[in-house]
Every structure is written in C-alpha cells, then in structure tokens.
Specification:
The protein has 497 residues and is α/β, with parallel strands linked by helices. It is built from 16 helices and 26 strands. The strands form six sheets. The chain has an eight-stranded mixed β-sheet, with helices on both faces. A six-stranded mixed β-sheet has the order 19-20-24-21-22-23, with helices on both faces. It comes from Senegalimassilia anaerobia.
Length: 497
C-alpha cells in the first residue's frame, strides 16, 4: 500500500533531498508512534516543535522526514528529507494521497458552528439511512461506520487519522458521511484536502477564545469551510450576523446555498411550532411549500438542528417526503437534552445535556423551562485549561434557572475551587439562588434533594461523556448513570419517607 515520495508530494511546492523514489509505508506526526518505513511530519505546534523530535522518529524507523527547514542529523545520511512551507498542509494532502483520496468516493457532509454540530450530524446520518444509504458519522460522541460504533478522542481527527478513517468508511461502502468540523481542525488544517459534498453552518457563540482570542478570528476559522479550499453545496443558518456574512460571501462566490433559520427570509423557516414534553409539532416553510409533522426531539434549539439537517438532506438530493419520514422517527442523540429514565423519579424530570457554552446553556434551560410546570434547577460547571473568560458568563446564564448548583466539570490541571470562583463572580445578582458543591455527584444529589414533583433538573456540560478529567486522572463518571442512581436513592423503594 506504500507510496513513493514522488507520488505523495507531486505538485506540491517542495524540495526533496535524497531519494524521491523512497517508498513510504505510513504517515506519522508523533515520533513515539513512528513505525519502520513511515514518513514523519515535523509539525510546528504551539508548545512543541516537531523538528526537535526528528532524531527520535529516525530511531523508531522513519525513512522520510517532512520539514519546514532542513534538519542536520549525523546519523540520518540515508533518510530522505522533504522541505515544505507548511508541514500541516503537506501532511493533510499527503495523507489524502496515501489513502487514495477516500473522501472523493463519499458524499462527505461537514457541519461547523459552536452549537448543534453533534445533533445535526446524527440527524443527517438518520435521514441518509432512511433514504437507503450506507452511512458514517465522525464527531464528538464518537465514530459510526455502518452499524459499528467506536469512541474518538477528538471532535475532528488529525489529518492522517481522518483520512485513514475515511478510507475505512469508503472500504465499508459508506455512501454518506456526516462529520463535525471544529474550528481547531480548520485552523490546524486537519480537513485540508478533504472533498466535501455539503458544508453547513449552525451558529457562532462564545467558545474557544482561549485559542482564537477574538470572535472575529473564531469566525474566520469556521468560515474557511465555506471558502475556496472547500468547494461544496452550502447550508447556512442566517439567524445571527455571522451566518448572514457567510451567506454574503457564498453568494458572491456563486455557491449553491440553502438558508435556514427563524428568520423569515430563510429558504427553510418555521411557520408554526408547538413544543411538548415528549415531542415538537412544526409547520415548516420549505422554499414556499408547507409541511406539517411531529418529531421526537424537544426545545427551540432542536428546531434549528432539524432545519439544518433538512437543508443538508435537500442539498444531498434526498426527497422532501423521505426527509420528513426520517425526522418523524429522529433518534435520541446521546447526551443532548437526554431524559434520564428510572422506575422511581418522584415526579422529577432530569435531563442531561452537553451545553458548555453560555448560549447553549441558555437555550437548553429555555427549552426545559417551556416544558416544566414547576421549577427548573441547573447543575453545571466549566472545564479547566479552557477559555476562562466564559466562566462568569456561564454563571449569569445559569441564573435563568430557578436555582443553580455550581460544581466541577472537567477541571483538568486547574484548581476546581478557582474555576468555581470564576463562575460565581458572574452570579452577583443571584444571591440565595445558587449553591456551590464542588463534588459533581453531590451536586446532582443536591439538585434532586431540592426538587419537588413537577420540577425539572438540567445537568449540563458533559452530556455523553462517561468520564471526568481531574488532574492527570481520567475518572469514571457519567451524568446519566449518576443521576439515575441518585434518583433511585432519593425516591426508590429503599428511600426514607
């Protein structure tokens, strides 16, 4: 399956020093993962420079080094060096060639935006499956190839891993693959050289400013998926100014665009929506035609996801009636406003959601409050080693609930109490309306203790995750499992009256 340097780098702006006919057996970007015969790409990162690991890569068997500057190693006389201007782009392009451009054999759908990516990709996968297609999903919750589910470590994998994954999907005869595309992935060229059939934008709200620093830079990273490097049909939600700007750019470029949103100028927008605890009834205007149907997801933000998936289905050439049939039986998305079911709940509804941005938390709370006859209680925290500027904003957003319990999320290497202090700094107007309980299990138990029949609890921030990152440890922790256990403890047969 190997490729020569000539085959991998043909047409790229590069200089090959050594044997251009050297055959590469694999592609690596971590020296400790190099296998004999691999090409090692010296990636210049924010904290480390891959060029400093060149000798280690050679010691592990690398026969080709891809570099941005020539490295001089006394023991590397038989190692070919390929000098490029950008090792990340070169790695992405070489990876695509190494696996024979697998995305060209698929209808690859890329969904970007701050919130809604996971739900939308799963809805697209379901629509395509109902349309008789063999499908795949790549994203935060994991990877799906046909009926096989696998865990993943990144929302969007690094380019060699992504191209290998797409090759597996091609070889498994997948027709449609729906992929979450993060801003980090776009900025770090992970998806460069991938061919998309459709790219879609959901929204832009505060997140990842520790990395991008400004909203404008965050937007421009997302916007790359709609530029010349990624020609495709487009689906764009135009409910915020960022979507409208994308629409302007894509229209100027002559792209095929389907717009969605509550904005009545969108090609897909709702004429009427009725929200219920178990489902939503909608009358949808699709390019001037009206379609009325129910689907088993709740909340206003899921209307946005439904419309985006509808638009993607249209851009994939799937018939409207098939799309509606699929949405009527839409699946529960893991950890996305997922109801916790247990034999004994005391009349208290508990929902688990991945909401970890201020906007997502507000939308999740708003959806639950609209369905709840009693009070709404929110359990939430913020992740460590991530954008600290959003913490007080998350605190303010949580005050939309009747009561909040501030706790730990994934503190990572930060002090959990310091993270909580940052959150509480934004809750100055909510004195008496929130508790602080750093232990996440105890916080969930506290919310259940406070709840009465008819109340709802939102446990936010971790969603589908079945772990908690504390220091360097990965602890077993699943909000859904813990909430179920604490409900049984409070209301089960052995509970005290």
């Amino acid at each position: 399956m190997g490729k020569t340097c000539t085959e991998l780098f043909e047409g790229m702006d590069c200089t090959i020093i050594g044997n251009a006919q050297d055959e590469v057996e694999g592609i690596a970007y971590r020296s400790d993962k190099v296998k004999p015969g691999d090409a090692f790409f010296c990636i210049v990162g924010m904290k480390t420079d891959g060029h400093t690991f060149a000798q280690d890569a050679i010691d592990h068997g690398a026969k080709v080094l891809v570099v941005e500057r020539k490295v001089y190693l006394a023991d590397a006389t038989d190692v070919t060096e390929v000098v490029v201007s950008d090792t990340r782009k070169a790695m992405a392009e070489a990876s695509a060639r190494f696996y024979d451009d697998p995305s060209r054999a698929l209808s690859l759908v890329g969904v970007t935006g701050t919130n809604g990516k996971t739900t939308t990709t799963y809805l697209v996968e379901h629509i395509a499956r109902v349309a008789g297609k063999r499908t795949g999903v790549i994203g935060t919750v994991g990877t799906v190839i046909g009926d096989v589910h696998e865990k993943s470590s990144h929302t969007t994998p690094e380019s060699p891993d992504l191209q290998h994954l797409l090759a597996r999907m091609r070889d498994a005869r997948c027709d449609v693959v729906a992929m979450e595309v993060s801003s980090h992935a776009l900025d770090l060229e992970r998806t460069y050289a991938a061919s998309f059939a459709v790219t879609a934008f959901s929204n832009l709200t505060q997140d990842h400013l520790d990395y991008h620093h400004t909203f404008e830079a965050y937007f421009e990273a997302k916007a790359r998926l709609f530029g010349k490097d990624y020609p495709a049909r487009r689906v764009i939600c135009i409910d915020d100014k960022w979507g409208k700007e994308l629409l302007r750019r894509c229209s100027e470029a002559g792209d095929s665009v389907v717009t969605t949103g509550f904005d009545r100028s969108a090609l897909i927008h709702p004429k009427d929506v009725q929200y219920y605890p178990t489902h939503t009834s909608i009358t949808l205007n699709v390019r001037g035609s009206y379609y009325e149907f129910d689907y088993p997801l709740v909340g206003k933000f899921n209307v946005e996801n439904i419309m985006c998936a509808f638009g993607i289905g249209i851009q994939l050439g799937i018939g409207v009636s098939t799309i509606i049939d699929a949405l009527r039986e839409a699946p529960q998305i893991p950890g996305r406003l997922e109801r916790v079911h247990t034999p004994h709940d005391g009349g208290v509804s508990v929902f688990v959601d991945y909401a970890h941005t201020p906007d997502a938390l507000e939308k999740a709370l708003g959806s639950i409050m609209a369905l709840t006859p009693g009070r709404t209680i929110c359990v939430f925290g913020c992740g460590g080693d991530r954008d600290a500027s959003k913490r007080p904003i998350m605190g303010r957003a949580a005050l939309a609930a009747d009561h909040a319990v501030v706790t730990s999320d994934n503190p990572r290497t930060e002090d959990p109490d310091a993270i909580i202090a940052d959150i509480v700094a934004g809750m100055g107007q909510g004195e008496g309306r929130f508790d602080v309980q750093p232990d996440r299990r105890a916080a969930i138990a506290r919310a259940i203790q406070l709840a009465k029949p008819g109340d709802s609890i939102l446990v936010a921030g971790k969603g589908h995750e079945d772990y908690q990152l504390v220091g360097k440890e990965v602890l077993s922790f699943d909000d859904r499992v813990v909430a179920r256990e604490e409900l049984e403890r409070a209301f089960g047969e052995g509970a005290c009256e």
